[in-house]
Write a structure and sequence with these properties.
This protein is of the alpha/beta class. Among the domains are: about 1-95, no CATH class; about 110-270, no CATH class; about 445-635 and about 715-725; about 730-840, Immunoglobulin-like.
Length: about 850
């Protein structure tokens, strides 16, 4: 474009009759290689060099006096005494231009910046540089924007933004980019801008030192004054601007790994976390209360090492079974929740550690405060209301524990969890349950008997509305409660949770049979089960029994339905009345010795699979009514029992043997064993351990067992689910600012928010980012994440107290600023916007 401009300027001048010669002395020979490309019509080009002065005088004065000439010299104009053409020069038209002049003219840069632009001649010789500079779209030129634009081009940044430039340098190929700055003579300008934007100054500046200073500065902002003295020289003057800069990097998912690598490098070089920890230990020796010192680092997430310190502290408290310890007023569970929230950078890195800590704490504390009654009805009511959570906490603990890459530091706590769950909880609640659990007392539980499932729940649907029954093998009560919680939040679902008492022994053959329509069930000594005289072990046999009541009934496998497309699903279910779908995820994994320790993973997968199937069927066919239930529950303990913990029994009297029950013709009168007879057992006895132990029985698989009378084995869930296939109106919860003041008087400030509604099936959770902007929409703080997902009824439990850090800059009294709440998944969707005045009389280099 600059060559085209020159050509147009020259042709315009030559178009004048009075113009015959134009002299162009190109001081820096910038156009020596391109001057021949000029298209000047009838005008001839003559190029001067150090040897053709006399010939040039002869050519122009004697040989060709008629033609017009552009006389180009790729050197500065000599003095008149040294210039044989000086006389001609004075009656000709002089022309002068250079790349800087052309570029600045084309882009509308004022001539007063020409001297500044001329300092970087190497930059302007590169056509690509010029094009990239133009493409930056700088709309206002001054010394700073020009320098930032030049540097942006050299470090491959497409926006003229110094923060983006700095980000590229500290996270990218700094050696390559710094060489480009050095080669173009703009290094000093870069360091001046670092001082201007971030307060960075050094006698020997370097990108590594800049990055180190920034991360230490960010760390110091949340360390409550516990930064060791040796690191204080690293703290930059414009602390708030550095905090916003670093936080924006940390919160960018695409830059997470880059930040982590940089922070690890800084920490390895400085031993920052180790030195902070050494100071904490010294303070601890004085105060004897380590949690007080941990308050100083609790809010800091600059380095992963701080999470390690907090995790080690939490583990030590759990290992000593100290449940009242707090950091900054938070319990161990609340600490785990907070450090694993989106507001903390390493939340994903340590999410399983914090989950394991939280659920270990919840389980241990619940057991410590639990009182177990022998009243059968109260036990059942308490289990459905809250006691089941102990089993959930135990399951969630191991689900997280197994996902921790190196869980060796959890070994002591895992042993505590195992001991408390197996030897305190199970060995307390199970004997209490069995103490008064007799055939007669089964009626006193207030629970429906599993054998009455079809009659109670399904009989009314015979020949009428379609109903889908999902039977998940070993889907115990606490797992169903988790599924129930998810269904409650589905706007198309209205679930109701109930419970049945399983048959004995609590095994698949008996449980599956009892769920079928029947008048009579029989169990033989070898555990062969029939209903109304018909075999019912296979799905084909169960299908036959269902069809004997109604030809439109059907039994299907879960995989057959889940893997089918929409057309196939309609073929399988359309026109059917009662549909039994058999799901086997938990028992399939747990009943095998090689995979029994995967049973808690299987529970999580089962919950997901059943939920997905319900959604799929609701969308593909008319399915207004579901029942989700199980054949039995299970007991699971991670540690295998020792031989001396296993129960002996009279093998010669046994007709059938299992780890959790035996079948005998007469009751076994042994310590630790209870015998019961059932109507369908043909006067045989089911003998089970009083506690959660197992019988001495050859074969693998001791962790996952069922068949006995523990609550976890016999409390069979029933979720009755009504679905709405039509679109159901739903909305998202609101988050509003509750702080009254609309004035900011400090660069670091706190505001309170409330989630105005609790999460329900028609009010969905939402993720929000909150930040401050100026009137032009430029962000002046980093994003503060708020996850509004509380289901609590109490408004005070749906509040957020959030910290905002504003950039250090001039805030004009009377200007408008805004606190913006935007959808985290679509920041263009502004949910709330509050107008503020920022009244900060003086902002010094430290941001106060």
């Amino acid at each position: 474009m600059d060559l085209q401009n020159i050509q147009d300027q020259l042709n315009t001048e030559f178009a004048k009759d009075s113009t015959k010669y134009i002299f162009w002395f190109d001081d820096k020979a910038e156009y020596e290689d391109e001057v021949n490309e000029l298209q000047l019509g009838d005008v001839k080009l003559h190029i001067l060099d150090d040897t053709n002065w006399l010939y040039s005088k002869y050519l122009l004065n004697e040989e060709d006096t008629e033609s017009k000439y552009l006389i180009y010299a790729p050197f500065p104009r000599p003095s008149d005494a040294e210039n044989p053409l000086a006389d001609m020069y004075y009656y000709s038209i002089p022309y002068y231009t250079d790349r800087v002049s052309q570029t600045s003219q084309e882009m509308g840069i004022d001539n007063r910046f020409k001297e500044q632009l001329s300092q970087y001649t190497r930059f302007w010789k590169n056509k690509n540089n010029i094009e990239k500079f133009k493409n930056l779209g700088i709309d206002h030129f001054n010394q700073q924007t020009i320098d930032i634009g030049l540097i942006a081009v050299l470090v491959d940044v497409k926006t003229p933004n110094f923060e983006e430039i700095t980000k590229q340098l500290i996270l990218g190929d700094s050696a390559k980019y710094m060489k480009a700055l050095v080669d173009n003579g703009i290094t000093d300008k870069f360091w001046e801008l670092c001082n201007l934007f971030f307060g960075y100054q050094s006698d020997k500046p370097s990108i590594d030192d800049l990055a180190t200073s920034m991360i230490v500065t960010y760390a110091s902002s949340s360390l409550k004054g516990t930064v060791p003295a040796v690191f204080k020289p690293y703290i930059l003057k414009k602390q708030n601007d550095v905090v916003v800069f670093i936080r924006n990097i940390m919160d960018n998912r695409n830059l997470k790994e880059s930040y982590d690598a940089l922070a690890e490098k800084v920490n390895k070089t400085l031993r920052f976390v180790a030195k902070v920890q050494e100071d904490l230990k010294k303070d601890n020796e004085k105060s004897k209360d380590r949690s007080l010192q941990l308050e100083d680092i609790f809010a800091c997430d600059a380095f992963a090492g701080f999470d390690d310190i907090i995790i080690e502290w939490a583990l030590s408290q759990l290992d000593d079974e100290i449940f009242d310890s707090r950091i900054d007023g938070l319990t161990i569970a609340q600490i785990a929740d907070q450090r694993s929230s989106m507001a903390y950078h390493y939340c994903d890195t340590y999410k399983y550690e914090y989950r394991a800590i939280k659920f270990a704490y919840m389980m241990m504390k619940s057991v410590a405060h639990m009182e177990f009654t022998s009243d059968i009805k109260v036990l059942v009511e308490n289990y459905q209301k809250e006691t089941y959570l102990i089993d959930s906490y135990y399951r969630w603990f191991y689900h997280a524990y197994d996902k921790i890459e190196d869980n060796s530091r959890f070994s002591n706590v895992r042993e505590r969890v195992e001991n408390i769950y197996a030897n305190t909880y199970l060995q307390a609640i199970t004997p209490k349950w069995n103490e008064n659990f007799t055939i007669d007392s089964m009626e006193q539980t207030g629970l429906l008997r599993q054998k009455d499932f079809y009659k109670h729940y399904l009989k009314s649907y015979d020949g009428k509305q379609r109903v889908i029954v999902i039977i998940s093998d070993a889907f115990r009560y606490e797992c169903a409660r988790e599924l129930f919680g998810r269904l409650e939040l589905d706007e198309k679902c209205t679930p109701k949770m109930e419970c049945m008492l399983s048959c004995l022994p609590s095994v698949t053959s008996v449980g599956m049979a009892s769920l079928l329509p029947h008048n009579e069930m029989n169990v033989t000594a070898d555990m062969t089960v029939t209903v109304d005289g018909q075999a019912c072990a296979s799905m084909e046999q169960r299908d036959k029994i269902l069809k004997s009541y109604n030809d439109d009934n059907v039994a299907l496998s879960f995989d057959e339905v889940a893997n089918a497309n929409q057309a196939k699903i309609r073929e399988l279910i359309q026109g059917k009345n009662i549909v039994y779908i058999y799901h086997n995820q938990v028992d399939a994994r747990g009943d095998k010795a090689a995979s029994e320790n995967e049973v808690f993973n299987a529970c999580a997968e089962a919950i997901d699979e059943i939920h997905r199937l319900i959604k799929r069927l609701t969308g593909y066919v008319s399915a207004p009514k579901f029942f989700i239930t199980a054949d039995h529950g299970f007991l699971y303990k991670r540690d295998k029992l020792q031989e001396f913990d296993k129960i002996s029994y009279p093998k010669d009297k046994c007709l059938y043997t299992n780890k959790r029950f035996i079948i005998t013709p007469e009751p076994v009168n042994e310590q630790g064993v209870m015998a019961r007879t059932m109507a369908y057992m043909q006067k045989l006895y089911v003998d089970t351990p009083v506690g959660a132990d197992i019988f001495k029985f050859a074969g693998g698989g001791q962790n996952y067992v069922h068949g006995g009378t523990a609550l976890q084995e016999m409390m069979v869930p029933v979720i009755e689910l009504t679905t709405n296939t039509r679109g159901v109106a739903y909305d998202f919860v609101n988050v509003v600012l509750t702080s009254v003041s609309r004035k900011v008087t400090n660069l670091i400030t706190y505001f309170d928010f409330i989630q105005s509604e609790k999460v329900t099936d028609t009010m969905k959770a939402r993720s929000i980012v909150a930040y401050f902007t100026d009137e032009a929409g430029e962000k002046i703080s980093f994003d503060v994440p708020i996850v509004a997902n509380s289901r609590d009824d109490a408004p005070e439990k749906r509040t957020f107290h959030e910290k905002f850090t504003l950039k250090s800059r001039e805030y004009k009294y009377g200007d408008k600023y805004y606190l913006v709440l935007a959808d985290a998944n679509d920041e263009k969707n502004i949910l709330q916007q509050y107008e503020f005045m920022i009244d900060i009389a003086f902002v010094d280099d430290f941001g106060f």
